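Today's session is about reading a structure prediction critically. Students often jump straight to the picture, but the first step is always the sequence itself: look for stretches that repeat, for charged clusters, for runs of hydrophobic residues. Only then move on to the predicted structure, which in these notes is written as discrete structure tokens rather than atom positions. Here is the chain we will use throughout the hour.
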Amino acid sequence: MGTLRLLRNFLIAACLSLLSAGRVCAQQAEPGQLPDAPGVASQPSPSTARHEAVVFHKKVFWTLVAVDAASAVADAQLSRAGLRMFPTGHEQNSWLYGRRPSLGRYYATDVVTDGGSAFLSYKLLHSRRRAFRIVGWGLPVAATGGHADGAIRWAVLIEGR
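Below is the predicted structure for this chain, in token form.
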């Protein structure tokens, strides 16, 4: 039960760090200046389309990327240890990693996939379209969830042995 307890504590700490990063970003927002009083103009000004500025929460994003990286490391380490303990076993995502990948292959594949996901997420979060920003937040969350799921499954198998 030691590995499960360690993994549970890791996930709790990751969630708490995301919550605290969100609170820090919310506290740092300064109230805007009041707009100037309307003046009397001789001619009405033409209406122009105003684009609202896209708010990008740097601390929340980079904290989420760090949690994703930590969950990828936990997943790679536990997967490799599990494959050593079970010689007849094979990697669930063998189409991506190979049937019995080395630790270096786990890390190389995770750097490419998670790095690409983080880059795409970063670009999507700067979009003016809300749907793209939602997808941008979903990419690192889904990657973190997938790695956490893999790490938990291997931890359960290792502890059950």
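Discussion point for the tutorial: Helices lie at 2-28, 58-85, 94-97, 103-125, 130-160.
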